[in-house]
Specification:
The structure is a single chain. This protein is α+β, with helices and mostly antiparallel strands. It folds into two domains: 140 residues, no CATH class; 114 residues, no CATH class. The protein is built from twelve helices and 13 strands. Strands 2-10-6-8 form a four-stranded antiparallel sheet, covered by helices on one side. A four-stranded mixed sheet has the order 3-5-4-9. The relative contact order is 0.15.
Length: 296
């Protein structure tokens, strides 16, 4: 056993007060380069928000059929019904829509002088919510009235494109979601940013998936928790305008593509650009590529 340890061990230096993970010398080198070159995500002028917590999903999250019924009874209902995504709906670069809808009786945004939704102006929706009034009244997560959702100062950010990701995942999976789509509380989202396509490509890369596992809380062998304190510490390299424009274009093509081979080719192109930005050596690149090829 002592001979095996002597031949296969590596020295790990533990410094500072941050969390640590045991890595080989090659892995330590990759991690150090990512951290030396990258700018933590928190410095990219972004905000990360959690999805909507209703306090009673049975009342506020409805099927497409129920949505149609409410709109047929009162067309004005459409004003406050929004498509909603859950954690299980979020995939890498895409999402599946389960035809679920949120009754967005928000509690207003006081800083922007936006008043709470007055449910009396939406009689069909009020009649629906009245069926659950005892549960709505006693829930902790409510607004000014039992009909309102709790305060959510970032509700307006749902009206813009954003990057969404689920709170627990087997592999880092971020997707671009269009305006007016909201998410449940098992999903986080990064509000719109001028670098949104570039960030999306970096965050979905094998390299960042590998790196994140050196930071985060892991569940079992593969799953990770996407706590914001860790996500905000992901180091993203600052690219030249030309490289960012290229990745932006590749992401547009990736999102539009339905061909698996084309998607894989685009992923490889983005990965190569990131390897170059972080300054990885041939052996370091080979290590990451082999690791993810074997995990397919």
């Amino acid at each position: 056993m002592s001979v095996f340890v002597e031949q296969n061990s590596s020295i790990c230096k533990f410094t500072g007060t941050s969390s640590w993970v045991i890595l080989s010398s090659l892995e330590q080198s990759i991690k150090a380069k990512i951290e030396a070159v990258g700018v933590p995500l928190r410095e990219w002028d972004i905000n990360i928000y959690r999805g909507v917590l209703t306090g009673f999903n049975d009342a506020f999250i409805i099927s497409g059929t129920k949505k149609d019924e409410l709109i047929a009874a009162d067309p004005k209902s459409a004003e406050i019904i929004r498509p909603i995504l859950r954690g299980r709906d979020i995939k890498r670069y895409e999402y599946t829509f389960a035809d679920l809808w949120l009754i967005a009786t928000h509690n207003g945004i006081k800083g922007k002088n936006i008043p709470p939704v007055n449910v009396n102006e939406y009689p069909a929706i009020k009649a629906h919510l009245d069926k659950y009034y005892p549960q709505l009244a006693k829930r902790a997560d409510k607004g000014d009235t039992p009909y309102n959702l709790r305060n959510c100062v970032y509700m307006d950010d749902f009206s813009k494109p954003k990057i969404m990701y689920n709170d627990i995942c087997q592999r880092l999976s971020f997707c671009l979601v269009p305006e007016n789509v909201v998410c449940a509380n098992t999903v986080y989202f990064i509000r719109y940013n001028q670098h949104i396509n570039y960030l999306l490509g970096c965050l979905n890369s094998n390299l960042i998936d590998w790196y994140y596992r050196t930071l985060s809380v892991q569940l079992g062998e593969k799953a990770v928790r996407m706590f914001s304190i860790y996500v905000l510490n992901i180091p993203i390299p600052s690219p030249s305008d030309d490289v960012e424009a290229l990745i932006h274009k590749l992401i547009d093509q990736r999102i539009a593509s339905i061909d698996n081979n084309e998607q894989l080719y685009i992923d490889q192109q983005i990965e190569k650009l990131l390897y170059d930005l972080y300054g990885l050596t041939t052996s370091e690149i080979s290590y990451i590529n082999t690791l993810y090829e074997s995990s397919k």
